[in-house]
Write a structure and sequence with these properties.
Layout (H helix, E strand, L loop, with lengths): L1 H9 L3 H28 L1 H4 L9 E6 L3 H5 L8 H8 L4 E6 L1 E2 L3 E5 L10 E4 L2 E2 L20 E7 H15 L6 H5 L2 E8 L2 E13 L9 H11 L10 E6 L7 H7 L2 E3 L1 H45 L1 H9 L4 H38 L12 H28 L2
Parallel strand pairs: 7-9
Antiparallel strand pairs: 1-10, 1-11, 2-10, 3-6, 4-5, 4-8, 8-9
Helix pairs in contact: 2-10, 2-12, 2-13, 10-13, 12-13
């Protein structure tokens, strides 16, 4: 038996096995690392720590001296909104719904905070475009409470600008969210008193938001009935934020766009493109390495078919003849995948130390071992099936 094994081993070419091992370990390492990197940084896009949301930007018309003389030129007409929505790089368009009534916010003098009185403005957008979803963000016509979302920049402006200059205390998001105040709405010959509180802070929308169903109700009750709805800002969602046609279109139509947001979205697009590229490259490398070793093995078997037929003729079953080749490729594949898993895990340990400064919870599930096992089982199964079929074909012809 040992002599037969030596005979079969002598038919293998070590340089082919070495080349197969090197190319396969590179391919598996790339694909394991790429998948794990995407898994680890996904909270930046989908979790609470997300830096970027949908490919969304707020656009408005540029204010010129002519628009200051005629305010109507600063508003979007229905035809303009339709034209924007029809652009190939635009996925969807949503409008801001402004309040058409007077709004005052104030506190009672016997409250726990200093009394204040100020004018406010409200706007609304569809809930699907809001980057937070507070539990209190709902309103019904029998509810006397108005939930409000403000931009995080407003709180930062107070803490690091107004509060510093006036010697006032700094406020955290939790603290300001506990402060309840009164809202007075007036217009159309009616006045309404409501309780209100800030229930969330948006990183995306730079305005004071209230629920859309409340805005529609309040505009109908307190708004100027003979006033048309003037839309000065709209939200656009891009199909591809890096489309080169976007900037020329906005320049041509004198639209302002949040360029910083657009640049962030380009970063997302480039990152995802890089993930897809490296994944495709890794798959290509694996396919080429597997194809090369299978083709090389088939050539070896074909070149030594006389030996294989002789072994079959003296009583060795074709499955038993195939076993040595199966064992060799299985051992090499196991060695390669284990090496790739270890290398990928080492790389992950290096970048997660840096990633913890961006993501509060870096304990994402480790997919390296799981994917490594899946790839190993798949490759071994392919080799075992192909080798047996090839040797069976040789001995039966």
């Amino acid at each position: 038996m040992k002599e037969i094994n030596k005979l079969q081993l002598s038919t293998l070419i070590p340089s082919q096995l070495i080349g197969y091992s090197i190319s396969l370990i590179i391919g598996i390492f790339i694909i394991l690392t790429t998948f794990q990197v995407y898994k680890d940084v996904s909270p930046l896009f989908t979790g609470e720590e997300k830096l970027f949301n949908k490919d969304i930007a707020v656009i408005s018309k540029r204010i010129t001296i002519f628009k200051t003389l005629d305010k109507s030129k600063a508003y979007f007409k229905d035809k303009e909104i339709t034209n924007i929505n029809e652009q190939p790089f635009i996925k969807d368009v949503a409008t801001f719904t402004p309040a058409t009534y007077k709004i005052n916010a104030y506190t009672n003098s016997n409250g726990n905070i200093p009394p204040f009185y100020t004018d406010l403005f409200f706007e609304s957008i569809p809930d699907s475009y809001i980057d937070i979803a507070p539990e209190q963000w709902r309103w019904t016509s029998d509810n006397n409470f108005i939930p409000i979302i403000i931009p995080k920049d407003y709180l930062n402006l107070y803490n690091f600008g107004f509060a510093e200059s006036q010697g006032l205390p700094l406020l955290s998001e939790n603290t300001i969210s506990e402060i309840e105040f009164n809202i007075r709405l007036s217009g159309n010959g009616s006045t309404g008193e409501f309780k209100s509180k800030i229930v969330g802070f948006s990183s995306r929308i730079n305005t004071i938001l209230v629920p859309l169903n409340f805005m529609k109700w309040a505009n109908n009750r307190y708004g100027k009935q003979n006033r048309s709805m003037n839309i000065s800002r709209i939200l656009v969602e891009f199909t591809n934020p890096s489309d080169e046609k976007i900037t020329p279109f906005f320049e041509e139509n004198s639209y302002n766009i949040n360029n910083e947001k657009l640049e962030y979205n380009k970063i997302i697009f480039l990152f995802k493109s890089a993930i897809y590229f490296f994944t495709g490259l890794a798959i290509l490398i694996i396919i080429l390495s597997v194809s090369a070793i299978v083709l090389g093995l088939f050539l070896i078997l074909q070149r030594n078919q006389e030996i294989i037929k002789n072994l079959y003729n003296i009583g060795y079953h074709y499955k038993k003849i195939a076993r040595l080749y199966q064992i060799v490729l299985t051992a090499v594949t196991l060695f390669v995948t284990i090496s790739a898993i270890i290398s990928s895990s080492v790389v992950r340990g290096i970048y997660t130390d840096k990633l913890k400064y961006l993501i509060a919870n870096t304990e994402q599930s480790n997919t390296i071992i799981l994917f490594g096992i899946i790839i190993t089982i798949t490759l071994i199964a392919i080799y075992n099936i192909l080798i047996v079929k090839r040797i069976k074909r040789i001995v039966t012809h």
